[in-house]
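Cross-check.
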Amino acid sequence: MFQHSNTQGYPLRDHIDLHHPLVELADMIDWGAIDRVATEPFQPGPGRPILRPRLVAGLLFLQHAFNLSDEQVVAGWLENPYWQVFTGETHLQTEPPIDPSSLSRWRQRLGEVGMEELLAQSIEAAKRANVIKPSSVQRVIVDTTVMEKAIAYPTDSALLERSREHLVKAARQCSLRLRQNYNREAPRLVQQIGRYAHAKQFRRMRAALRTLRSRVGRVHRDIARQLDQVPQPQRKTLDDLLARTGRILTQQRMDKNKLYALHAPEVECIAKGKARTPYEFGVKVSIVTTDLASFSRTASHAAKSASSA
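Predicted model, tokenized:
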């Protein structure tokens, strides 16, 4: 079921320090529990065998401990025999175990449940090693911050034009014939709105914005009238796009739950009271850590000891 590496060649545990922090930590972690959680998203059948969950989980742990990128952790694994033992290898490997892009795909497959299982097994291993006491995780510290999203500054004109572009593209993919797509007029209106705003000619700016809104509304209604002609597999995506465009067309300046990005409806405008950035566009993130953060410091210390050994 799993994809195994080549086990012929140099035996690792016969030639390394078995009291190394990473070797001892590897023996304390319940890798079987991680295997069970990691293999749930996969169904048996034809195709390429999946990677060993211990390999991916070990690389993710090393990546977090050393603050490395996907490419750096894979390259470091190739050079460090202790990292190879930590991920379950028994013989020295001379080729990269995976492509670095596989780590990002595995993080998506594991999801929230898989990452929580990795954290839980790490904490249990720390308890078995007497690194932390059970009382250390009974009290936690919670803080919140903003994780900014990769979106442009949400002006009305930019949101309307992006909605029109997506609608025209979706109509072309669904073989819908539009009366007008405004591919020439709409971009010129966006430029005019920006110039009027820069020159503080707000009356002209609002007039151009109303014209742009009416053009996008025409495309929106034209597609909505032809929605019955769209096949079912494409219908859901088009319905979602029409719903988001409808929100952008009707939302006002002081409305709550506004849509700030067409591709990321979860984005919110959050004010954290910062002097330099009074408003941030993203999602709220909660960070929970144990009191005194003893476990985090211990994990970082073990990883640094492993690199210097």
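The longest strand covers residues 280-290. The chain is about 55% helix and 10% strand. Passed to J.P. for a second look.
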